[in-house]
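Exam revision sheet. Question 4 asks you to relate a sequence to its structure. Input first:
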Amino acid sequence: MQRNLTRIGLVNLVLLLLAGAVGLFISRQSGSYAGQAGMAFLGAGLLVAILSWFQMRLEDRERLEKLELEELARSAKGSTLFDTGDAEIFPAQRAREQFERFIVPGVTFLLFVLQAVGAVGLWVWLQPAMATPLRQPMLLLALFGMFALVLLLIGKYGAKLAQLDNQRLLRPGSAYVLLGSAVSFVIALGIGAVEAGFPRVDLYLARGLAILLGVAAVETLITLVLEVYRPRVKGRVESRVIYESRLVGLLGQPAGLFSTVAQALDYQFGFKVSDTWFYHFVQRSAGWVVLGQLAILLLSTCVVFIDAGEEALLERWGRPVAGREILGPGVHFKAPWPMDEIYRERTREVRSFLIGLIPDEDPKKEREQKTMLWTVSHAKEEFNMMVASRDVRPSSSGVADQAPPVNLVTVNIPVQYEIRDLRAWATQHAAATNHLERLAMREVNLYLVGVDFFEFMSSGAETAAKALRANIQKAADDAKLGVNILFVGLQGVHPPVKVGKDFNAVSAAGQEKEAFIERARAYAITNAIYARAEATNRIRLAESHRLRVVASTVAQAAQFTNQAKAYQQSPEVYQQRAYLAALVRGASGARKFVLTSTNAKEVVTLNLEDKIRTDLLDVNVDRTR
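Answer key, structure tokens:
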């Protein structure tokens, strides 16, 4: 019987090897993610089957060795030939103990490493994966269906035999064979779902299998840790081996859960709870209870609540339902999953994304930056974009300067949009949001290469925002995204942070130059005006002097004629009058002194109505004269 168990272990090993190799090859050729991920369990089962088969061989050799020694001992009664130590009499036992002490924990740790690396590798590999049509799906479905049936028969036979004969070494391999059957059946169901119009089911199953492989790796690690601190009794054979997975056994044989629960209840209450009618009723009705719960769960998927501001796309077997393509806010009824599925979106919500930078994950940092400087980064990561530059001047030799006709600029362009056509948004592209962001980025790059750097940063900002909004809207309409671009802003346009300080210095120098030029122009304008005013003033003074001299000369000429007539009429009177007029003209501006005689009593009357100067009143007069 022992040799029969060893052969069954070898059959498990070969079956896992063939099923894993063929399944992996066909899955890679057909492009099935779930098939490739499921073969990782068969690979882990192959390692466990090899380890258990070697251990069964060692125990079989140990058993035969003990039988031979017992037979020799009975045939040589009274002989001291075999009175030696155990290490010399039982080399097979010593080999088995060394194997269990060193090889089994080492291979179990290797199993944990392979499971952990496989789980992480599968998860990383499946993250960017997209659902693709399967190649030769019917062949793949038939193959995994055959694997499920064959593995179920062989695994069930081995597990039942291990249970009846209490063979602890046959259980791990048989459990992995049954798990391989269950995994093959699930993969076949996934392939059928893909053919029924659900292409993402295969990818979802692959990710679920990757998570399950990670859970198995955690269980293996916990088992290894507990094995280190487990108390050991010499000569006692443990009922379980460390590489036997309870999770794998439960997944491969769900019925074993009832026996485990029954044993725990028997131990807890101290009597055979598993023999009571209630336990048998629960065991018989468990399937119906689960089916009832699944039925209730399916019925719960028939009612859909659409919140205010939302719309939902209703599909039946992957196609829109005629007359009910779009469901508005409220309560709606539909066929149960997976017949009908809904894809809800908030179509009245204004959504936004940023072009040109990756915002900081901590919003406190953005609030702390009250002053936005070009020399300080404003986000987690900023991207430099090329923008045209018309400022390319030829050198003295006639060849253009070495600077290329482009510059780098860092932009922060918020784009706000809303969903206008839910059906186009949900069905035209697998990742509509990412596609819209890429289209917006493309339109920004195309616009920047055709606009001047300084114009874009200053007076052309408003024009650029309007042009970008129109271009992004046209690109989204051409791609049939079903969105309405509400706003495109230019809230942060500046040179790259690394050259911000130098750019500021150049800009400041340019501003200073313009200030000097404007001051020179103002000085030139001011002095020109003053010069023209002075010239005009002098010209007017010269003209007035000329007119005054001419008028005076004419007046004098006319006066002379009149004077001649007056003189002819009365020479004495004229002379006396001329003398007095000359005396008035000559004495009008001179200081006058009044001298009176001292021996005469004369009264001098002065008219003081006009103010007399102080120097005239303060004159010291020598009254003795």
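Marking note for examiners. Residues 506 and 512 are 10 Å apart (CA to CA).
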